[in-house]
Design brief:
alpha+beta; single chain
Length: about 150
């Protein structure tokens, strides 16, 4: 999957270089500069996705239908109250697999947040670190917010 993305990025960069029509530009640019260009193009996609997830998390935080933390997440999964679980990317592997296993048994969706536990806590509007977050009631679409999916 990453090879496909990197080859697509390389094609886009080649297209830009052909558009500029300067063949000497490739000789002037070092490989590290080209690598930085590839990183910038790839990071724009992930940045948009992060902004979208963070804005949706803000809506969930306003609704108040969530629990933060590992123990409370497991508790709500066992009770059958959870709708969606969000796990930070630096959650320990054993913890992550345990949560995923519980979610599989309870038929609950799991989303792997691309930021760390600090980023997840910040996105929740809290000054704390949170390895996982349980959403107990998904926000439904209203006429004022067309970016949310229908439930």
């Amino acid at each position: 999957d990453t090879n496909r993305e990197s080859s697509g990025i390389k094609r886009r960069v080649r297209g830009v270089l052909n558009y500029i029509n300067t063949t000497n530009l490739l000789h002037l640019l070092s490989t590290s500069v080209l690598h930085q260009i590839f990183k910038m193009v790839a990071s724009k996609k992930t940045k948009k996705a992060m902004e979208s997830i963070n804005s949706r998390l803000a809506l969930v935080m306003k609704s108040g239908k969530f629990t933060i933390g590992y123990r409370s997440t497991l508790k709500s999964i066992r009770q059958g109250k959870s709708q969606l679980i969000i796990i930070a990317n630096n959650t320990p592997a054993l913890r992550k697999s345990e949560i995923e296993y519980y979610c599989m048994l309870a038929k609950v969706g799991v989303h792997h947040y691309s930021g760390s536990n600090i980023d997840l806590g910040t996105a929740c509007g809290k000054i704390l670190q949170s390895s996982c977050l349980c959403i107990t009631d998904l926000v439904t679409q209203t006429s004022s917010d067309p970016c949310l999916p229908n439930r």
